[in-house]
Amino acid sequence: METIGSPLLWGGFLAFVALMLALDLGVFHKKAHAVGFKEAAIWSAVWVSLSLLFNAGLAWKFGSTRGMEFLTGYLLEKSLSIDNVFVFIVIFSTLKIPGPSQHRVLFWGILAALVLRAVMIFAGAALLTRFHWLIYVFGAFLIFTGVQLYRQWRSGADEGSKLIKLAYKYVPSTPHLHGEHFFTIENGRRLATPLFMALVLVELSDVVFALDSIPAIFAVTTDPFIVFTSNIFAILGLRSLYFLLSGMVDKFHYLKPSLAGVLLFVGTKMALADVVKLPSWVSLLVIAGLLGAGVAASLRWAPRPAPHHPA
């Protein structure tokens, strides 16, 4: 199947992204403030609605198969980005980043992530076009990652803490915040503030998760335009998703094993791509079913907090 991204389509989409980012930072979030649940819910609804409108436009212009590929890819990327939320919570709480500064860190972090994702997507597409056998490598890597994610959930290991230790090991920094500044001078030395450390860690976490999510979406479609646009829509809504879930993420105890199941499924699909051909709607149902099962199990069998015994 031919790719659908004409230069006009690419240019129009990039212009749309630039416009939305300019409106976000220059109009709606011009002043730093703590994003509340209501505001996060509204912005999450806006990003999801825009994604679905774009999906409808693709289906109308290029057919239902392309529309289904985008929807499946978007759901996949959106679900895997939830794991970023877990890490963001650890980063901001450990570094004691105040609410008004979290939005600024996530804005610049996600802006850089857009560029990094674009590079990784085009590199991945080029490699798969030239070296078809890499599809089996990607599949095996996703299966391995799914198993590791499940083990991490079982053991209670914390990916965010590992990233924090790594960053502090190599970046000269101070534990003291200096307003909205990323750097400061202390005792004649230029040091990174916790705000910059948080930005670095947000970027590192996105690179780590992109190593999972980008190969995963190539199991759904190899069209660079659909891979790119579904990724970008998921990333654009990531900040709102963070502020929406940050206060209640502990309630979704079984979400990580369901994400592990998603990775195992798409990894197996990719590894068997030349043997078994699954329609996009089957992939969509499986991914949605695994996520729904994780949410339902979390709501039904949420771990009870340990009882508090007064001294």
Radius of gyration: 20 Å
Span between N and C termini? 68 Å
Unreliable parts: none
* General form: globular
- Characterize the biggest β-sheet: 2 strands, antiparallel
Tell me, rounded to a whole number, the average pLDDT: 78
The helix fraction, in percent, is: over 70%
Number of strands: 2
Output the helix-strand order.
Answer: HHHHHHEEHHHHH
Beta-strand proportion: under 5%
Structural class, by secondary structure, is mainly alpha
Total of helices: 11
Biggest β-sheet: strands ordered side by side in the sheet? 1-2
Describe the structure.
- The chain has 311 residues and is mainly α.
- The protein has a domain at 34-160 and 213-300.
- The protein contains eleven helices and two strands; from the N terminus they run H-H-H-H-H-H-E-E-H-H-H-H-H.
- It has a two-stranded antiparallel ribbon.
- Helix 3 runs parallel beside helix 11 (280-300).
- The radius of gyration is 20 Å and the shape is globular.
- It starts with 6 loop residues before the first helix and ends in an 11-residue tail after the last helix.
Q: Secondary-structure map with pairings?
A:
Elements: H1 7-28, H2 37-62, H3 64-95, H4 99-130, H5 134-155, H6 159-170, E1 183-186, E2 189-192, H7 194-217, H8 224-236, H9 238-245, H10 255-271, H11 280-300
Antiparallel strand pairs: 1-2
Helix pairs in contact: 2-3, 2-8, 2-9, 3-6, 3-7, 3-8, 3-9, 3-11, 4-7, 4-8, 5-10, 6-7, 10-11
